[in-house]
Design goal:
about 450 residues; alpha+beta; DNA Polymerase III, Chain A, domain 2; nine-stranded antiparallel sheet; eight-stranded antiparallel sheet; about 20% helix; elongated
């Protein structure tokens, strides 16, 4: 009997370790090897009820059920497709045989007496879904909370009718649309990191099915059985997304690529909330401010010259980790509403996060020059002399009120920046109070019940 190959064992151990959120608790569960209808299935179940299976052909082999100690897999895993053979001198004793390089290896095994609890259920009928579902489950799982409170924020929600996957921790939320689920209702499943693992991400055919107790995701020979929860409460995340945003920022892909590597190094990274200021004006800028030490109050900014703003100019303060993650997800359209969560949108993806306390904003530096727009953002036009029709032109047109207002606004902004730097040291003593206020503001903005 050949129950598995060494690479299958390696990948199985990698995936199963990620079928739990956090550190595994208790002893490692046994491994079940079931041969039935010429299909061999390798399976293990976590204490939380998540089951991982791997199916392979077992042509002309009789039905059988073996239960091995989990420690056996660690001994035989490897990086080759070499088969591992099992000899059974008795019902509960076996010997595994394989080659470790050019040297034959053997491992005596004490088998576990199988019971009804080790029987594997037949796989359910399944429907093909886009492979992006694995990414959606992984990213929404990353967004979920570590623990649940009044709401089941430690789980991921699949909305059957809407074709959407949702994850939130009460401070940020991720909504991923575009999946034709074969069920109409909403279901909650554990947020586990297995769907971001390489053995699954290599698969191009993904299916989804459902039993009375589990949601089953199949990717190639692998399947993950997730226990479902239809009774726990989950917030209406879509309801917190503002339907109308007066200001929209479109971040150019090249600007996003240039911003991501420098974002962690902007001043203020040692602050608990890691704030950065996004100025959505004629030229979009991202700015950080030093919050402690001898250089307190000093700012540094990165202009995004190819990005554009539609609507009123606005200044928002965001956690730089939120901004970085949104851009990494491809969400480069930012919709901003005063006193509402910031909304990042991309292809079928919406990422929502609370704005930080405006008191944490970084003002422009007095010595920072105005960035010059690139040729793609300014259109050159020739100077056209006005028609005089033989009359003497007036000595000068009156000043444009809009230009005067713009100059006044710029002057006031510069004055405000100097004033902020002047009192920065005095404000340092109130830092702890501002941090607490910012945290409370985050929770109030999303209002998802994560703290109850």
């Amino acid at each position: 009997m050949t129950p598995f190959t060494r690479t299958t064992v390696r990948d199985f151990r990698t995936l199963f370790a990620r079928c739990v959120s956090g550190r595994p608790r208790g002893p490692a569960p046994p491994v079940v090897i079931q041969t039935k209808d010429e299909v061999r299935t390798l399976a293990a179940t976590t204490p939380e009820g998540v089951t991982l299976t791997h199916a392979s052909p077992a042509v002309k082999e009789s039905d059988d059920l073996l239960v091995l100690p989990a420690a056996v897999l660690e001994e035989v895993e490897g990086g080759t497709e070499e088969a591992v053979a099992l000899d059974r001198p008795s019902k509960l004793r076996g010997v595994l045989r394989w080659y470790g390089g050019s040297t034959p290896r053997t491992l005596p095994v004490e088998l576990i007496l199988p019971g009804k609890q080790h029987d594997l259920p037949p796989p359910p009928a399944s429907s093909v879904v886009p492979p992006k579902l694995l990414t959606a489950l992984h990213e929404c799982g990353r967004t979920a909370a570590k623990e649940s409170g009044r709401y089941a924020l430690s789980k991921v929600q699949l909305q059957g009718k809407a074709g959407r996957v949702v994850g939130t921790d009460g401070k940020a939320a991720l909504l991923w649309n575009g999946f034709p689920f074969p069920f109409p209702d909403d279901v909650l499943v554990p947020a586990v990191p297995v769907f971001g693992s390489r053995p699954l991400s290599r698969m191009t055919e993904v299916k989804i099915g459902r039993t009375a107790t589990h949601l089953v995701l199949t990717a190639g020979p692998w399947a993950v059985w997730l226990p479902t929860d239809v009774k726990a409460k989950y917030p209406d995340v879509a309801a917190v997304v503002p339907r109308y945003a007066p200001t929209t920022v479109a971040i150019d892909p090249s600007d996003a690529a240039a911003l991501l590597p420098v974002l962690p190094g902007l001043p203020g990274g040692d602050h608990e909330l890691r704030p950065v200021t996004l100025d959505a004006e004629r030229i979009v800028r991202v700015r950080g401010r030093t919050e402690s030490g001898e250089e307190i109050g000093e700012t540094k900014e990165t202009p995004l010259p190819r990005s554009t703003t539609t609507g009123p100019a606005v200044r928002v303060v965001l956690d730089r980790r939120v901004l970085a993650r949104a851009l990494a997800l491809g969400c480069r359209t930012l919709k901003l509403t005063p006193d509402k969560p910031a909304v990042f949108t991309g292809d079928c993806v919406t990422f929502v996060a609370a704005q930080l306390d405006p008191a944490l904003h970084a003002p422009p530096g007095a010595d920072e020059p105005e960035p010059i727009p690139t040729p793609t953002t300014l259109e050159r036009r020739p100077t056209v002399k006005p028609e005089t029709n033989g009359h003497t032109p007036p000595r000068g047109d009156p000043a444009d009120p809009l230009e005067l207002a713009e100059e006044l606004r710029t002057a006031l902004a510069d004055a405000a920046g100097k004033a902020v730097r002047l009192v920065a040291v005095l404000r340092q003593g109130k830092k702890e109070k501002k941090v607490l206020s910012a945290v409370l503001t985050n929770l109030k903005q999303l209002n998802l019940g994560g703290t109850s």
